[in-house]
């Protein structure tokens, strides 16, 4: 059984503004005060692990240690079947040193064409890790199935949202308003599990 989160103040261990915005939206109903790693000027650790859970724990451990607060991290990415699961844990790095997602989406289009494989299926994966300063930890994995569509559509969300169309929908995450994305996203799926284990009565 995971430990209950009774503290009111936590640090969101992410330097990605799009993610921090979504995590804050998801945390809002629980009356938690969330400060981000960037607000606290915490260093950004190198993501040296080769799994989502490994990197999520690494980021949350570093932030809990540096801040003395419970830390919530998110390691996420886009796994494309025609690319055997790439970019996966490398989804941020696939966008180059400037984290240019116009470039990353064009690169995805190119790499999928070069693969010679017809399938468009993909999924977003998100691991949320919660680590307390005394070392106790919990992690939850969520996903959402969909397909990659070009050209990019919509300017909501962040990252790869304009080229990801969730299964059963005809608009991309980039075209959805945030509330609708929160109803079905990989992050919301992981969050529901975290709430059930650590936050609900
Ligand atoms: P932090 O480690 O500081 O949290 P990061 O951007 O480096 O930020 P990741 O290593 O987890 O985070 O990379 C995840 C990438 O996957 C992220 O940069 C996005 O491009 C993409 N991604 C994850 N969730 C997404 C979402 O909901 N919509 C679009 N793209 C997403």
In summary, what is this structure?
Helix content is 30%, strand content 22%.
Describe the overall structure.
30% of the residues lie in helices and 22% in strands. The chain has 5 helices and 6 strands. Strands 2-1-3-4-5-6 form a 6-stranded mixed sheet. The longest helix has 16 residues, at 52-67. It binds inosine 5'-triphosphate (ITT). Inosine 5'-triphosphate (ITT) binds at residues 14-16, 19, 44, 47, 59, 74-78, 91-92, 124, 157-161, 173, 185, 187.
Assign an overall shape. Answer: globular
Structural class given helices, strands, pairing? alpha/beta
Separation, N- and C-terminal Cα atoms: 14 Å
The mean pLDDT is 96
The major beta sheet can be summarized as: 6 strands, mixed
Helix content range: 25-40%
Small molecules bound:
inosine 5'-triphosphate
Q: Helix and strand string, N-terminal first?
A: EHEHEHEEEHH
Number of strands: 6
- Gyration radius (Cα, Å) is 17 Å
Order of the strands making up the biggest sheet = 2-1-3-4-5-6
| Alpha plus pi helix count | 5
| Amount of beta strand | 15-25%
Low-confidence stretches: none
């Amino acid at each position: 059984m995971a430990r209950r989160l009774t503290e009111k103040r936590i640090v969101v261990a992410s330097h990605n503004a799009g993610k921090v915005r979504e995590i804050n939206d998801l945390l809002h109903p629980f009356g938690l005060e969330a400060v981000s790693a960037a607000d606290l000027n915490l260093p950004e650790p190198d993501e040296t692990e080769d799994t989502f859970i490994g990197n999520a724990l690494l980021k949350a451990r570093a932030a809990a240690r540096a801040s003395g607060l419970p830390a919530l991290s998110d390691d996420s990415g886009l796994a494309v079947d025609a690319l055997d699961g790439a970019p996966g844990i490398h989804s941020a790095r696939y966008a180059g040193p400037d984290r240019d997602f116009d470039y990353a989406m064009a690169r995805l289009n190119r790499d999928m064409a070069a693969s010679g494989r017809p399938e468009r299926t993909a999924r977003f994966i998100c691991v949320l890790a919660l680590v307390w300063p005394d070392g106790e930890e919990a992690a939850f994995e969520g996903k959402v199935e969909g397909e990659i569509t070009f050209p990019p559509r919509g300017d909501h969300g962040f990252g790869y949202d304009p080229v990801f169309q969730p299964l059963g929908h005809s608009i991309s995450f980039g075209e959805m308003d945030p509330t609708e994305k929160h109803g079905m996203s990989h992050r919301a799926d992981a969050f529901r599990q975290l709430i059930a284990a650590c936050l609900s009565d």
